[in-house]
């Protein structure tokens, strides 16, 4: 980059002021490259990353489905409601969490003022104020007294200016609130939140990525505001709000990423309610298992398989749902399919030589949560400097505030336990097996471990994946020849990866060697646990892609019988139900092991 060449951030800020409604993301990317050309293989990638992580700070909101909206347009005139807690009234504060995600996230500078135009004081976190419980907040004591605010009253917030962002608040008495006027709006909002949360590929989705796009495009965005979205989420068992910031539809139990108080804490659940929930789940599982057993029997009678259940992935879980080491085996295929223009993120590239200190959590959700919290703690002027800084400059700026961050939010800094170093030379074997290398081995388990080593040492896995990769690439070309769009062809081809990985990893087979038993095991045991977040549509798309792929292999003369794929496609509703039931199971439930065993029969026998 030359000295006078504009940065990507500067161009994106400029473009945000030139649009007055939704715009295709690709068009924005193209306009950035017009001012800042790139010779990279995928020149859009860097710009997309800036929009994904810093979009709000750069003036853009991602609506989804390839569309963006200037943030000042999304926020202008928007109205929402806050319901301060009795604890907030007692402290004379309004925690920032009440205003999320409309302000205060990802470095969004803003002013909160009263109806007379007087700004409210923002109280930053201070180490000598433990009563703040790690919550940044506005000082509201005088305002509460002036307007006669009482428990149960609401604060109606209106975005009166969007650039710079100014929010104006007024009081609404509890008795003036019209629940009937907002019932339809509340129902639409809750359903939209649920749908977006289900679609996201992240287990924990930041609320600005879920809630803000809904308000930006809703017909009631500037009308009489309904119930705060946080309250709607807390009342619905299908959704969970984590640390006031993240949304998930996964049953994660009492999850907390940070050791700090929350404004929106879920209501306590009675033990008998959890037991009743598990009993209902078990009843559904038993009913489904009866259907699965009968379906397998019918298909065996029809000659589609011999009725012999395969359990390679259950015998030894070498590739669990958390293992992504084998993903690189399809990198070449991904490059061929996407042409450098695939919009989803690449899989995390695990570094097998990196020793992660005990207790240090490096998953993406936690890193993103730490990023969000750090931005809330840093002074506004520091965030403004960060938004203008290059990467190396940002490191220096943040380093100047490390002592402050450590004092105010020590939970941002993981505790690393340094183990004592012995004088003995450590071999690979001793470092791998640890203290239990001398323990007595169970001979059967030893055999399983040998099988685990074979998965990596045997070249059959790699050869099988290479051959499956070639078949998938041919299928992709075939779909294009049949008039399918490149997006559809990519999606259906990419869906086949899960079965290809499964066959190669556990059976040393290619996709051309698939059969009823292994596909049943993949769909009803491996896939639900292997894929962290999936939807009903994705499950059905997978089954459809498999059916079409094997019909393609028949047409090309690669295989002689594709009836097994057709049969499993007819059972796609059952796969959906297995995935849905597994999603409803909570790991901290006393009944989890029983539910897990029953749901995944016969592979857990």
TrEMBL record:
The keyword Zinc-finger does not apply. Keywords: DNA-binding. GO terms for molecular function: DNA binding. Residues 466-554 form the Core-binding (CB) domain. It comes from the Bacteria. InterPro entries: CB (IPR044068), Integrase_recombinase_N (IPR010998). The keyword 4Fe-4S does not apply. This is Core-binding (CB) domain-containing protein. It comes from Candidatus Viridilinea mediisalina.
